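Supplementary Note 3. Input sequence used for the single-chain structure prediction.
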Amino acid sequence: MGVIEVGELLYEYTVKLTGMTEYGISLESLIAGTAVLPPEGARFDVVFDGESTGPKLKGKVTGVDYLQVRADGRFELHIHAEVTTDDGHKISLHADGVGLPRKGSPIVDLRENVTLFASSADYAWVNTLQVWGTGTADLAEQVVHIKGYSA
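The predicted structure, written as discrete structure tokens, is reproduced below.
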């Protein structure tokens, strides 16, 4: 892989939420406004999978976000995922960041600080990158869309 420029688009992925563990309050009722967020906030383990498209990383993405919703409504992201590239290599993806719900909408704006890791010589170039992810989560449709750029 050649030199990666700052601000270069590395990947774009769209994932579907496929499972959720809720700890005392449902995310659906919280988003619908039929439940009140407790003073201590709320925790959800959100499982997802989908596809990553290039230009640099293409393949299948699977993972979990250990999501904490703070008492002020801000989402704290803690994502662990793997990318299985189209040519069969595994890349670990770890991200933290924030989700900012849009008032009166099921859309959450996402900002992620991402690191990637691969032992494969073909993808060792990801190990030195810092990645900035930006996108949205549509909680009504249960779809997340993220673009990852080199920082």
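The chain is about 5% helix and 60% strand. The beta strands are 9-22, 42-53, 59-69, 75-85, 90-101, 107-117, 131-138, 143-150.
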